[in-house]
Design brief:
The structure holds two protein chains of two kinds. Chain A has helices at residues 2-29, 32-61, 68-73, 80-85, 91-112, 121-142, 167-195, 200-230, 242-267, 271-294, 309-329, 346-378, 386-409, 417-440, 448-478, 483-493, 495-520, 594-600, 624-644, 649-669, 684-702, 707-726, and strands spanning 522-528, 533-536, 539-550, 561-571, 574-579, 582-585, 604-607, 609-612, 616-622, 674-682. By secondary structure, chain A is of the alpha+beta class. In chain B, 79% of the residues lie in helices and 0% in strands. The chains are: A alpha+beta, B mainly alpha.
Chain lengths: 727, 91
Amino acid sequence: MAVVGRAALILALLTALFGIGASLYGARRGRREWVDAGRRSVYALLAILSVAFAILELAFINNDFAYNTVANNSSITTPLFYRAAAMWGSQEGSLLLWVWLLSLWSSLAVFVTRNRMREIVPYAVSVLLGFGAFFSSLLVFFATPFALTSPAPVNGAGLDPLLRNPSMMIHPPMLYSGYTFFTIPFAFAVGALITRRVDAEWIQVTRRFALASWLFLGLGILLGARWAYYEIGWGGYWGWDAVENAALMPWLISTAFLHSVMIQEKRGMLKIWNASLVLGASTLAIVGTFLVRSGVLNSIHAFGASTLGVPFVILISAMVAGSIYLVVSRRQVLRSEHRLDSLFSREAAFMLNNVLLVGLTFVIFWGTFFPLISGAITGTESEVGAPWFDRYTVPLALMLVLLSGIGPVIPWRRATLANARRNFTLPLLAALAMLVASFTLIPISSSPATVALFCCAVFVFAAVGQEFWRGWRVRRATSSDTPPGALLSMVRRNRRRYGGYIVHVGVAVLFVGVAASATFQRSHYVELKPGQSDVVAGYTMKVVRPTAAIVTDPTSTGALLTLGAIVRVSRSGHYVTTLHPTAEFFPDPSGAEGPVGSLIGGDSVSELSLDSSFRRDISAAIDAPSVQGALQGEINRANFLVNSDKAGPKARVDLSYLLLAAIAHGYLTHTPAAQFKLTSSPLVMWLWVGALIVFAGGLTAIWPTGGATARVRARYFARVAQDLGRA
Amino acid sequence: MVVLVIAVIALLLAFLVWFVGAPLRKPARLEQGGDDERRALEAARAAKYAEIRDTELDYRTGKLSDEDFRALNRQLRAEAVEILRLIDELR
């Protein structure tokens, strides 16, 4: 079937190339049938890539180690759940997932716009198929997932243990969906600029696609942070890693676009800026993909060195050059229809928000690429760490949170003094109360940045709460709805407005979680044996007893040996919770560690044990290498015993497992000291709650308008038609 | 096995040619540009109505003074009328 898979990729490339030609020919000559053929090429690309995707997925599920990709990223001992997700653990498989998702979302975009924007769509289709052709050609010429080895190995290397987490099934597809979705606003922006039709319909369509990509990418980033919190970071959700930053940059730029496009919608301003933001966000999404795959920067998430760097640099250069040419050559079409009326208006607040978001992106871009920049200038690659990022991003984030409270209460065009008094009094009083509380009731005054953030967050809650309250009162006065019904109908009739407000509340809640946990997290690295304890932020954490499991590992990751400890947590003598951190040991397929050592001599992973509540998270992690190091003497003795045995191969394997069981038993009876990380983090839960609120708001804003809104529009239509009759 | 593989690839190719080439087997049609114009104006009209509603809500929730609201509402409604006029011209 590998030949069929390879043929499918070649056919996908040819389909994309044909579609580009057909769309452009149809658009230039005004020939509808060629445009339709181009559109159908997008659907065909999805169908043919689905075949390739299914063939590779089946190879992983069926342990077909004749495929190099399967042999390098899966094994017989890898559980089925992780075998199904192992495909995107490899460079080739993840590229196939990327282009398959691209074709899926492109098909959706082409279907949704099948009867709209007839001039723009052929160009947009050719751009989307251009991306499809690029990634298909990578799979055909540079990183084919269907390369075979003969004879096929009996077993594979296994999936990287760090990837054996349920998030592996959902995080990469979600992140790639975000990245691939960004190509859609890009394609429609290019089409609109080529045809010089940057009109209301373009905004309507592009805004929705940009919002969808913003949602997908944001959800992908959130899932990644959650995964890192449990697996990689031992309680750290963000490490300013190059690949994390690469995902954040297009998300920030699209956040800026979602705000500034409203100014274009209402005032006909910022057209050049908006076109640049759409094009820039998509280019940054491709830069993110390049960072993961080229190996130019060190990252725990990257695939390592590869030959894909040059093709990506060519693509990114073409996107940047093409974008600049289109914006500059269409500047007449993009000129503003109005000027800013007042610096004290919602337009001005949105502009400042855009400046801050773009500034934040620039800081992150600079910090991320600093190793390359410093390497080019000095010949030595230097990295900037988390403190450098924090120094610049914290003040910018503070101002952004404050603006997310100012935006909802300030009117378009111009705010008067009376208006300011009416709308800002309550939020300012609430922020002032928070300031007083932070020095009296809540012990956070030691960190001025956290105090400022809490005050800004309370300002946002009060501002948005006031907006909901006033809107609800208006709705109650103008309808016969029940109180909850009035709230629901108010949101339903103004999804964008109230969806946006909900997002602002979510952002403020999220930053409360980030600020509190980053500032007041307490962690201890200590060496403990059973019976010993340590005190972290007032919590006494005592190692009660060790645990051990062979083959039947408790987290179903395929680890052969799992060692851990039961940790009892108490505060002032009162029981709080029990934690069970573990260290998992995976086989080494090379066999270099000897017959017993190789059963557990591959990668090892520390599984965090966490007790989470709205007030605080308490966690314990056990350092796997320190445990393995302590057992090395036992492992060496066991290797010697098996090697000295004269029995046949099967009996030697049985003896190896028996000795591994003896080592595990020895760990339970004579437990060596192990390195623990014990952590107390306040309010982390609010980070995840805030993120959920953000996405609930995003979904509210993107949800299609229903019949009620259509009726309201019809009413306005009638009213304006009356005016037309009088005019 | 080889025959089966060749047959599957041929089937995929045949599907692509049939599916993608279907519109080309129909009589040639010219693209109609006026439809885009009308749809763009309808989108502009929907956006303008949304803006009128937003302004009314802003006024009722105390973000706009009487005077500002009257001026703004008059201007927005005039812009909506202009869009309706353009839509009528296309019919």
